[in-house]
Amino acid sequence: MSEPELIELRDLAPARRAGPGRTRLERANAVRISPGTARHPARQPVLGRGHRFQPAGPSTHTWCDLCGDFIWGVVRKGLQCAHCKFTCHYRCRALVCLDCCGPRDLGWEPALERDTNVDEPVQWETPDLSQAEIEQKIKEYNGQINSNLFMSLNKDGSYTGFIKVQLKLVRPVSVPASKKPPTLQDARRGPGRSTAVRRRTSFYLPKDAVKHLHVLSRTRAREVIEALLRKFLVVDDPRKFALFERAERHGQVYLRKLSDDEQPLRLRLLAGPNEKALSFVLKENDSGEVNWDAFSMPELHNFLRILQREEEEHLRQILQKYSCCRQKIQEALHACPLG
C-alpha cells in the first residue's frame, strides 16, 4: 500500500528574493551552533540577547530548542525564557545564540479564547459512515467550496482531499545548517531515524504561516505533523508538536488536541468546509502529558538513571541543609551561658 500523497500548495511566507528566480524561507536571527564550538575560544558564538531564563515549571515535558534532546528530570526541568518561551537544558544555556524575539503575538483573538475550555468536546460527532453516506457527504462538501480543493472518492472506498494547517508556533524550530536537501532514503526513514544532525540553524517561523496538504482519509494526525516537518526540513522531534482542532461557537474559540491516530480529513468531511466550524492548528505539545510508550527502551532506561542521579543529588542537598541548620543551633546552645 502506497503512502499518502502530500502535496504542497502554498509556500511559507516567501521572504526577500535571494537571487534571480529563487525564493527562500525567511530565517530571522538565524544562527548556527555546533557542539564542538566551545573548544575553540576564537570561534565562540555571540550569546543571544534579551532572554530572561527561569526554571521551567514542573509540568514542562518537552524537547530542548537548542540541542533537540528531551529535557529529562523532575526537579531540574530545564530553563525557559519568560519572553519568547525558548526552552533548553541547563547545560545548553551558555550556547544559546538566537536573540529573544520578545512575546509573540500570534493573533489568537484573546477576547474569544479567554474562557476556552480545551477539554470540552466539539459539537459534531464522528460516526462510522457507510460508503453511500461518504459519497453523499463528499458531494455536499464539493458543492459548498469556492475553490478547486475538492475531495474525491477512490475505488478502494477511501477518499482524498485537502486540509489547511495554520502553524502557530511560539518557540523556534531547527533545520540542518547544511543546504544539502535530504535524500530519498532519509525521507523513507522518517524524522528521528536519519543521521543525527550535528549543526543546526534555529529561527522563528512567521506567525501567519499556512500550509495545505493533500491527504488520504486514512492519514493520521501524527503523519500530518511529520509531513509538515519534512516540508520545512525541520529536524526537531515530531513529538515536540501537536495538531489541534479549532472551532468557534457562541463567541468563544475551542481547541482540542488530536490523538496520534485521529484522521484529520475525516473530521474535515464531517464538519464541512466552514473554517469557523473546524480548522487545524499546529502548536507546541506543551500540555504536560508525555506518551512514554513512544520512547525506546534505551531512552527509558537512561531516564531512570538520570532520575536516580537527580534524586541522590536532591537528597544530598536536603541533608546538607538540615545538617547546616543543626550545626548552627548546636553552636548557639554552646554559646549560651549555663543557668
UniProtKB/TrEMBL annotation:
Broad class of where this protein is predominantly found: cytoplasm
Start and end residues of each Phorbol-ester/DAG-type domain: 50-100
Biological process per Gene Ontology, one example term: Ras protein signal transduction
CDD domains: C1_RASSF1, RA_RASSF1, SARAH_RASSF1
Listed SUPFAM superfamilies: Cysteine-rich domain, Ubiquitin-like
PROSITE patterns cross-referenced by the UniProt entry: RA, SARAH, ZF_DAG_PE_1, ZF_DAG_PE_2
Keyword set, alphabetical order: Cytoplasm, Cytoskeleton, Metal-binding, Microtubule, Phosphoprotein, Zinc, Zinc-finger
An MF annotation (GO) of this entry: zinc ion binding
A Pfam short name: Nore1-SARAH
Protein known as: Ras association domain family member 1
